[in-house]
Automatic annotation (TrEMBL), chains A, B:
<keyword id="KW-0804">Transcription</keyword>
<feature type="domain" description="HTH lacI-type">
    <location>
        <begin position="14"/>
        <end position="68"/>
    </location>
</feature>
<dbReference type="InterPro" id="IPR000843">
    <property type="entry name" value="HTH_LacI"/>
</dbReference>
<protein>
    <submittedName>
        <fullName>LacI family DNA-binding transcriptional regulator</fullName>
    </submittedName>
</protein>
<dbReference type="GO" id="GO:0003677">
    <property type="term" value="F:DNA binding"/>
</dbReference>
<dbReference type="Pfam" id="PF00532">
    <property type="entry name" value="Peripla_BP_1"/>
</dbReference>
<keyword id="KW-0805">Transcription regulation</keyword>
<keyword id="KW-0238">DNA-binding</keyword>
<dbReference type="InterPro" id="IPR001761">
    <property type="entry name" value="Peripla_BP/Lac1_sug-bd_dom"/>
</dbReference>
<dbReference type="InterPro" id="IPR010982">
    <property type="entry name" value="Lambda_DNA-bd_dom_sf"/>
</dbReference>
<dbReference type="Pfam" id="PF00356">
    <property type="entry name" value="LacI"/>
</dbReference>
<dbReference type="InterPro" id="IPR028082">
    <property type="entry name" value="Peripla_BP_I"/>
</dbReference>
Length: 338, 338
DNA sequence: CTGAAAGCGCTTACAG
DNA sequence: CTGAAAGCGCTTACAG
């Protein structure tokens, strides 16, 4: 226990008060030194810092936030953690946060449910965060109102196909769908299939689908057959729906998927069934996930910039005026499956 | 704008004070009603709740926490978000939290770096969380000390092969490695290869490796060849290291991977190179990720329970005494690749 | 360059 | 069943 002798006292919680007492200065001086605010004599600073270290003092941010009426918390609401796309956005947010004066993310999940989102945001706002970053434009009226009435910055991430409450950072999913259609038509594909997941709560996948159809219409084409799962997107759903589509009566020579997870499932199904890609059928995804890129035949897809969206969301919330929309773009990845 | 007439006043932030004033009661009464504490006359409650709704009052949790000296925050530190395993743990934590009186997770990333973890935990403790959930047993001395001195509950997740600071929830990675070795030896494999990632900061992968070797030793065997990436685990690293191992001089008939990501990379390499699995070489992973399960040949692996670990961590922190270790177990998944 | 005082928005004994 | 008062641990004008 001798090793513990120079450690902070076991129990007694140490506050600015104790530090001030021990250092023979006022609480305000301790506070100023700790926040590097205002002019401080060098020896005062040294004396105080020594006491701070000796006592193992950790400022209480709850008290600090209450007193200064601002917190360094950023509320983040994402729809799900099971789709790797959102953890990637979180990584970007985390990277953006590292450049700040140690802001902290408070993360919640909305499960693609606007009612749940409303509750979650209510709980978040109670912590008086500096900003709330949420996903997409679909919110309940009450959510929208809470956000408008509060004076926190709001960033709606992923999508820029509508007008933001405050700031939007993302890409145009409609354009991505359109670009997919144009690209595939130009490559000579004519008989289009579509394999999707439950789009009821996935506005962005719906927008991509609409964009795709517009491009096909312009070329005098349409989607000849489709198979849509009742569940969220997953590799398993992609396998199943691909099997269903290919077992149908309408022949297709290219399948556009609602995203890469579904498309990887499509590739797995074709491998199992001895269907050659892209000879028998071509496959095109969306997102540009690493798993698709690493497959023996790299998945043809559109790369979205999830990390960039998260990082930019933080930067924008710190610097941009209300009404800003930032397009993080996308790019077609040729790959080997279409 | 008539629709906005009944909405809360635009600016003036509303506090208990305003609610109390408008409802003709004291602040303490408002506080009691909002927290369902103590006896309250029915009509008082109704009257106050009406005002609360009318004014759109949202309690300030920062003030609440400071006054009551306890927060509903739970600090969570995970090493990374790029390995899907940790988002899965977060999902479990989220599920566990839903059963509580709306506690909120504050999530930070340590990037497998004990120094960074120390800073992150320091920042977290400043928020006086109810508990800190972190990953594994590897911490700096300072981290360990902070955690011990603070009176927050501490859960170390994923691993149970050491003694916890407070509570540990996870599985024995040594046993999992051992079980892998036994299983594969029993199935008749004799020439073992190992493909891994950078294990310097990954104690659990090291423990699995040690367990595997023990099992092999007991059977009079050893690892004949290995290829270890300098980077973190990924499908790409798995492809590359598998190629390297199979190009070496030492023939192997089964490869044990440090985890499923690496193993999936191994499968992809074999597909590209026309190597048949498990005929030419068998493949065995660790984790039981969905992607491995969905492949045309389901990946042989060990299933860990990441979701359960997260969920149990929350439950344990609420109910279990210090010193508790909870084994969430694992199971061998036969699959088709070994 | 430093200190005394008020206050941030709640909660919690304590009294009645 | 309800209220007045003190206090949680900081920060921020204001004075000097």
């Amino acid at each position: 226990m001798t090793a513990k002798q120079r450690l902070p006292d076991r129990k007694s919680k140490v506050t600015v008060r104790e530090v001030a007492l021990r250092a023979n200065v006022s609480e305000s001086t301790v506070s100023r030194i700790l926040r590097n605010k205002g002019p401080i004599a060098d020896d005062t600073r040294e004396k105080v810092m020594e006491v701070v270290r000796a006592m193992g003092y950790v400022p209480n941010r709850i008290a600090g936030s209450l007193a200064s009426l601002n917190s360094n918390l950023v509320g983040v609401i994402i729809p799900s953690l099971s789709n790797i796309v959102f953890p990637e956005v979180l990584q970007g947010i985390h990277a953006g946060l590292e450049a700040t004066d140690n802001m902290q993310a408070v993360i919640s999940i909305s499960n693609y449910d606007v009612e749940l989102e409303e509750n979650v945001i209510r709980g978040l706002l109670a912590w008086k965060p500096a900003a709330v970053l949420t996903t997409g434009f679909e919110h309940s009226d009450a959510t929208r109102r809470m956000l408008e009435l509060s004076d926190v910055r709001v960033v709606e991430m992923m999508d820029i196909d509508s007008d933001p409450i405050d700031i939007a950072v993302g890409m145009s999913h409609r354009s991505a769908g359109y670009a997919t259609g144009r690209h595939l038509v130009e490559k000579g594909w004519r008989r289009f299939g579509y394999v999707g997941h439950n789009l009821d709560n996935d506005r962005r996948a719906r927008l991509r689908f609409e964009g795709l159809r517009s491009a096909l219409f312009e070329a005098g084409l349409d989607i000849a057959a489709r198979a849509v799962a009742g569940s969220a997107s997953s590799v398993g759903a992609g396998k199943q729906m691909t099997a269903q589509l290919l077992d149908g009566d309408t022949p297709v020579d290219v399948i556009v998927y609602s995203n890469d997870d579904m498309a990887v499932g499509g590739v797995f199904h074709c491998q199992s069934a001895g269907i050659s890609i892209p000879g028998d059928v071509a496959v095109f995804g969306f997102n540009g996930l690493d798993i698709g890129f690493q497959m023996p035949q790299p998945l043809s897809t559109i790369r979205s910039n999830r990390f960039l969206i998260g990082k930019t969301a933080i930067e924008a919330m710190l610097t941009e005026p209300a009404g800003t929309k930032i397009d993080t773009g996308f790019e077609i990845f040729e790959g080997g499956t279409a």
